[in-house]
Amino acid sequence: MLKGYFSRNLEKGERISASRKSRRERGIWQRRFWEHVLRDQSDFNRHVDYIHWNPVKHGWVKKVRDWPHSSFHRYLAQDIYPEDWASPENQDIEGTE
């Protein structure tokens, strides 16, 4: 609902490709995005793990702790994650494959 309200109230005029026009899409939203309601703490934890692992998955860094923009460092300082989380020595981490 929020996206719909925002889109309808945004001034028109941005460049829109032919394929977006045919699908009646605005140019402001990223394709291949879907909303997800977090169901419980376990679901939240899996999503945070995914976010922390993503820079490694895409080859931007070799270790999670090497990504300087990550909230992983805050979680590490709060002893939520061990420093070697998702490292090759710690292969039992769920969601890192």
Description:
- With 97 residues, this protein is mainly α.
- It has two domains: 1-35, no CATH class; 36-97, no CATH class.
- 37% of the residues lie in helices and 0% in strands.
- The chain has helices spanning 2-9, 18-22, 41-57, 72-77.
Offer a few descriptive terms.
97 residues; mainly alpha; 37% helix
Chart the SSEs and their pairings.
Layout: H1 2-9, H2 18-22, H3 41-57, H4 72-77
Poorly predicted sequence stretches spanning 5 or more consecutive residues? none
Shape label: elongated
Count every helix, treating DSSP H or I runs of 4 or more residues as helices.
Answer: 4
First-to-last CA distance: 34 Å
Order of helices and strands: HHHH
Strand content: under 5%
**What about the largest sheet?**
none
**Number of spatially distinct domains:** 2
* Tally of strands: 0
Structural class computed from helices and strand pairing = mainly alpha
State mean pLDDT (0 to 100 scale).
Answer: 84
Short précis:
This protein is mainly alpha-helical.
